[in-house]
Amino acid sequence: MPLRPLSFGTLLGAPFQVLRRNPRATLGSALIIQFAIGLVTAVIVGGAALLAFTRVDSASAADYDSIQAGSTAIVLLSTLIPLAVALITSALLQSILVIEVSREILGEKRRLGELWRAAARRIWPLALWTLLQAAVAVVVLGAVVGVIVLLTFIGTVGAVLAVVFGILAFLALAVLAAWLTTKLSLVPCVIVLERAGVRAAIARSWRLTDRYFWRTLGTEWLVGAIVSVASQVVVQPISLIFGLGVGVLAPNGTDGSGFPSDILLIGGLYLVIGVIQLVFGAISSVVQAATVSVIYVDLRIRKEGLDLELIRFVEARESARQDADEDPFRVAGRA
Fold first, then answer.
1. How many domains does the chain have?
2. Is 323 domain-assigned?
3. Distances from the Cα of 31 to the Cαs of 27, 38, 331, in angstroms?
4. How many CA atoms within 13 Å lie on the side-chain side of 243?
5. Does residue 331 belong to any structural domain of this protein?
6. Which residues contact 274 (CB under 8 A, 6 or more apart)?
7. How high is the pLDDT of residue 140?
8. How many C-beta atoms lie closer than 10 Å to residue 184's C-beta?
9. Is there a contact between 95 and 122 (Cβ–Cβ < 8 Å)?
10. In a domain, 1, yes or no
11. What pLDDT, in 10s, does the model give residues 87-125?
12. Measured distance CA(213)–CA(179) in Å, rounded
């Protein structure tokens, strides 16, 4: 990436260059983390569901209601473990990708293990930030849904008001969410590269995006749209081909022996599509996190002259005059 203010086209292309230059560390990390989340979810929630089904199936008529309620509670509680794992691993992936982009800008290429060790140092502030976002979303949505439910108890007029309020509230929330997520999108970069706490990172992201809101929003949304469309272009034809294959090879749902051969075809379809979705989900995570990181660097170049510090750092490194602990992204006054 050139060490100068970036054009809109460069901003769009740079995240994909990050993926291309070091796919083992970037895409590999995303695949490992997404697979781990899926595996933990399948084992924990699947095991809890199997246990619950077994208990309900063997329950006597007298105990059926209480056992069913307890089994439902077990399944619901079991989802908390995958959520916790997803929270921590998502923070780890964010940290990995922010560090990778910052090193690539300096012309360095880190190995997967190096990135993971460096990223682990900032995982807890990032996890706290992710948890804070989730908590705010739950509280706000819960409040809106609560008002809608209360309005429905009033009667016919209340039901009409509930519909109107619901439509207006969710439209307003969509606009508010777009605004806040854009203004605060640089928080992970600030937490990782500037070693800031969550509160300081929120204020810093807010200031950096001043006067560059629409540029930031447009870049993030356009990159997300490109990745989403590319994913659908690949997945949908494969789904269509497998669907036609099921209809041609097993039009009645069975083969000559009566075995439901379409089960194998459908199973293969879900497996292939699942793998493709895993890969594209990992690619999307990498590209979108890289996009935010590139925007962060670009805004610091435009507003703080970071390019001069980066050039000085690179020149000092090449002439062997670089301090081992020096970090060009660090803000003065932060440890």
1. 1
2. no
3. 6, 10, 32
4. 7
5. no
6. none
7. 93
8. 17
9. yes
10. no
11. 888 888 889 999 998 888 888 888 888 889 988 888 899
12. 8
